[in-house]
Amino acid sequence: MKPSLVLLVSGIFISVILGTSPSQAQVKTNQVNALVEALRQAAPPNRPNDGMYSDWQVLPGIIPDWSKRCAGKTMTPEQFEKDPKMARQVVSCIVKRELQTQWNETKNEQQAVRQTACWWMTGKPKECQSGTLVTYVQKVLNTYQKQLK
Fold it and tell me: What is the tally of structural domains in the chain?
Protein backbone atom coordinates (compact mmCIF):
# COMPACT_ATOMS: atom_id res chain seq x y z
CA MET A 1 0.00 0.00 0.00
CA LYS A 2 1.17 3.55 -0.73
CA PRO A 3 2.13 5.58 2.35
CA SER A 4 -0.53 8.22 1.60
CA LEU A 5 -3.23 5.55 1.39
CA VAL A 6 -2.04 4.02 4.66
CA LEU A 7 -2.29 7.44 6.33
CA LEU A 8 -5.77 8.01 4.93
CA VAL A 9 -7.02 4.61 6.07
CA SER A 10 -5.36 5.09 9.47
CA GLY A 11 -7.00 8.50 9.86
CA ILE A 12 -10.43 7.14 8.99
CA PHE A 13 -9.94 4.24 11.39
CA ILE A 14 -8.91 6.56 14.24
CA SER A 15 -11.87 8.85 13.52
CA VAL A 16 -14.27 5.92 13.67
CA ILE A 17 -12.73 4.65 16.90
CA LEU A 18 -12.83 8.08 18.54
CA GLY A 19 -16.29 8.81 17.16
CA THR A 20 -15.51 12.22 15.76
CA SER A 21 -13.76 13.55 12.72
CA PRO A 22 -11.74 16.76 12.70
CA SER A 23 -14.58 18.47 10.85
CA GLN A 24 -16.97 17.49 13.63
CA ALA A 25 -14.83 18.48 16.58
CA GLN A 26 -16.88 19.39 19.61
CA VAL A 27 -16.77 22.95 20.83
CA LYS A 28 -15.29 23.22 24.30
CA THR A 29 -17.04 24.54 27.38
CA ASN A 30 -14.56 27.41 27.71
CA GLN A 31 -15.35 28.46 24.13
CA VAL A 32 -19.08 28.44 24.81
CA ASN A 33 -18.58 30.38 28.05
CA ALA A 34 -16.37 32.93 26.29
CA LEU A 35 -18.93 33.45 23.54
CA VAL A 36 -21.84 33.70 25.99
CA GLU A 37 -19.96 36.39 27.91
CA ALA A 38 -18.98 38.17 24.69
CA LEU A 39 -22.62 38.24 23.56
CA ARG A 40 -23.62 39.62 26.96
CA GLN A 41 -21.00 42.35 26.84
CA ALA A 42 -21.86 43.28 23.24
CA ALA A 43 -25.61 43.41 23.87
CA PRO A 44 -27.29 46.79 23.64
CA PRO A 45 -27.88 48.29 27.10
CA ASN A 46 -31.09 47.30 28.86
CA ARG A 47 -33.68 50.02 28.56
CA PRO A 48 -37.01 49.94 30.36
CA ASN A 49 -39.79 48.53 28.20
CA ASP A 50 -37.53 47.81 25.21
CA GLY A 51 -39.15 44.42 24.69
CA MET A 52 -35.94 42.46 25.29
CA TYR A 53 -35.09 40.30 28.29
CA SER A 54 -31.98 39.58 30.35
CA ASP A 55 -28.43 40.76 29.89
CA TRP A 56 -28.42 39.01 26.49
CA GLN A 57 -31.41 40.99 25.18
CA VAL A 58 -33.48 37.94 24.19
CA LEU A 59 -36.74 38.40 22.32
CA PRO A 60 -39.72 37.33 24.45
CA GLY A 61 -41.29 35.02 21.88
CA ILE A 62 -38.37 32.58 21.87
CA ILE A 63 -37.91 32.33 25.65
CA PRO A 64 -40.59 29.67 26.32
CA ASP A 65 -39.19 27.34 23.64
CA TRP A 66 -35.54 27.84 24.56
CA SER A 67 -36.19 27.43 28.29
CA LYS A 68 -38.22 24.25 27.72
CA ARG A 69 -35.53 22.83 25.44
CA CYS A 70 -32.56 23.82 27.59
CA ALA A 71 -33.82 23.92 31.17
CA GLY A 72 -36.67 21.43 30.99
CA LYS A 73 -39.31 23.98 31.93
CA THR A 74 -41.17 26.67 30.11
CA MET A 75 -40.35 30.13 31.41
CA THR A 76 -42.11 33.39 30.79
CA PRO A 77 -39.98 36.34 29.70
CA GLU A 78 -40.46 37.85 33.16
CA GLN A 79 -39.19 34.67 34.87
CA PHE A 80 -36.24 34.60 32.49
CA GLU A 81 -35.44 38.24 33.29
CA LYS A 82 -35.60 37.66 37.06
CA ASP A 83 -33.34 34.57 37.07
CA PRO A 84 -29.90 35.50 35.66
CA LYS A 85 -28.45 32.08 36.48
CA MET A 86 -31.18 30.29 34.52
CA ALA A 87 -30.94 32.85 31.71
CA ARG A 88 -27.20 32.13 31.41
CA GLN A 89 -27.87 28.38 31.39
CA VAL A 90 -30.44 28.70 28.60
CA VAL A 91 -28.32 31.11 26.56
CA SER A 92 -25.30 28.81 26.97
CA CYS A 93 -27.29 25.84 25.70
CA ILE A 94 -28.49 27.71 22.62
CA VAL A 95 -25.08 29.25 21.94
CA LYS A 96 -23.41 25.84 22.21
CA ARG A 97 -25.82 24.40 19.64
CA GLU A 98 -25.37 27.28 17.21
CA LEU A 99 -21.60 27.55 17.66
CA GLN A 100 -21.31 23.81 16.97
CA THR A 101 -23.45 24.19 13.84
CA GLN A 102 -21.32 27.06 12.55
CA TRP A 103 -18.08 25.31 13.50
CA ASN A 104 -19.12 22.20 11.57
CA GLU A 105 -19.94 24.35 8.55
CA THR A 106 -16.90 26.63 8.53
CA LYS A 107 -14.28 24.47 10.24
CA ASN A 108 -12.82 27.78 11.43
CA GLU A 109 -13.15 29.07 14.98
CA GLN A 110 -13.19 32.79 14.20
CA GLN A 111 -15.66 32.40 11.36
CA ALA A 112 -17.87 30.17 13.52
CA VAL A 113 -17.87 32.84 16.25
CA ARG A 114 -18.67 35.57 13.71
CA GLN A 115 -21.53 33.59 12.20
CA THR A 116 -22.91 32.67 15.62
CA ALA A 117 -22.83 36.33 16.68
CA CYS A 118 -24.58 37.29 13.46
CA TRP A 119 -27.19 34.56 13.99
CA TRP A 120 -27.70 35.80 17.56
CA MET A 121 -28.47 39.29 16.32
CA THR A 122 -30.37 38.53 13.10
CA GLY A 123 -31.38 34.87 13.07
CA LYS A 124 -29.26 34.44 9.93
CA PRO A 125 -25.59 33.54 10.30
CA LYS A 126 -24.40 35.16 7.08
CA GLU A 127 -26.33 38.44 7.01
CA CYS A 128 -23.86 40.69 8.85
CA GLN A 129 -21.90 42.14 5.96
CA SER A 130 -22.29 45.87 6.51
CA GLY A 131 -22.93 48.72 8.89
CA THR A 132 -23.60 48.29 12.56
CA LEU A 133 -23.92 44.53 12.20
CA VAL A 134 -20.27 44.24 11.16
CA THR A 135 -19.30 46.38 14.14
CA TYR A 136 -21.37 44.22 16.49
CA VAL A 137 -19.92 40.95 15.15
CA GLN A 138 -16.37 42.30 15.44
CA LYS A 139 -17.04 43.43 19.01
CA VAL A 140 -18.28 39.94 19.89
CA LEU A 141 -15.23 38.32 18.27
CA ASN A 142 -12.79 40.67 20.03
CA THR A 143 -14.44 40.10 23.41
CA TYR A 144 -14.55 36.33 22.80
CA GLN A 145 -10.81 36.28 22.10
CA LYS A 146 -10.09 38.29 25.27
CA GLN A 147 -12.22 35.89 27.32
CA LEU A 148 -10.12 32.94 26.15
CA LYS A 149 -6.81 34.50 27.27
Answer: 1
